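Throughout our pipeline, every protein is held as a single compact record rather than as scattered files. This encoding replaces a full spatial description with a residue-level series of whole-number codes. The remainder of this section carries one protein's record, kept here as part of the documentation.
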Amino acid sequence: MPVPRREARERALSLLYEAEAKGVAPGELLAELPVPPDPFASELVRGVGERLAEIDALLAKHAIGWTPERMPAVDRAVLRMAAFELIALADVPTAVVLSEAVELANGYSTDESGRFVNGVLAAIAGEVRRGEADRPGG
């Protein structure tokens, strides 16, 4: 039975953080797990790994004054995961992506992380989801 997406995002965040801490690709970490995570968590982790260069370029462009390497590790993982959702998962509304990412940042990172994550993701969404408000349901 699939877990709620919020829980899947938390699991994906922990896996992305673990992959970076171990210095392995996210897909490689997934392959090593004895029990695979929820399919949505797997999709997020695998997607970040596959599109890491594109995601980090967006982060560098929109996180004024910050390179991805300088960001706190949890912020970087949250931003990468949410940026992947914005780029590749059009069925997830922008407001949901931003809200979930801010909640993760507030819960697992610094006091300033929620505002930082929200600002960066709003800028990325403005670029990659132009016209969303013009679509039905958007």
User: Anything to note?
Assistant: Helices lie at 5-22, 26-32, 39-50, 52-62, 73-88, 94-108, 113-128. Residues 134-138 have pLDDT under 50 and may be disordered. The longest helix spans residues 5-22.
